[in-house]
Specification:
By secondary structure, the chain is of the alpha+beta class. It has a single domain, classed as Dimeric alpha+beta barrel (Alpha-Beta Plaits, 2-Layer Sandwich). Helix content is 29%, strand content 35%. It contains two helices and six strands. It has helices spanning 17-32, 83-100, and strands spanning 2-9, 36-41, 49-54, 57-62, 71-79, 106-112. The protein has a four-stranded antiparallel β-sheet. It has a two-stranded antiparallel ribbon with strand order 3-4. Strand 3 and strand 4 form a beta hairpin. Helix 1 (17-32) runs antiparallel to helix 2 (83-100). It is globular, with a radius of gyration of 16 Å. The two termini are 22 Å apart.
């Protein structure tokens, strides 16, 4: 089964060098094991845009977005046997943050691919 892990946080800065190194080591291990299929960090909100529909009209809003309380910082796509493996991987990844970037708070949402992604 394919799973996507999506990391969100109110923290706006980059990871510490120690955390970045640990994340790269973890990613290398997961890639070599054939479990990590893709991953990436995202640029700051100031460089993004939102496309939305409101009152039947498509609207584009360039960043930064004042109302953003949490930001998607990155994602990873994995191939696991089940949800339990996916959650265990997310726990290991988030533990790196606790160990190497004290004070950081955030969430790693784990969701399986499947079904219709539309409304």
């Amino acid at each position: 089964m394919r799973f996507m892990s999506i990391v969100t946080s109110a923290h706006s800065g980059p990871p510490t060098p120690a955390l970045l190194e640990a994340m790269h080591k973890l990613a290398d291990r997961e890639i070599k094991a054939g479990r990590m299929l893709d991953s990436g960090g995202l640029t700051p909100l100031s460089e993004g845009a939102r496309v939305s529909i409101s009152d039947g009209k498509v609207k584009v809003l360039d960043g930064p977005f004042v109302e953003a309380k949490e930001v998607i910082g990155g994602y990873a796509i994995f191939e696991f046997r089940n949800k339990e493996e996916a959650v265990a991987s997310a726990v290991e990844f988030m533990q790196l943050h606790t160990d190497l970037m004290p004070g950081w708070e955030g969430t790693c949402e784990v969701r399986a691919f499947g079904g219709f992604a539309g409304a």
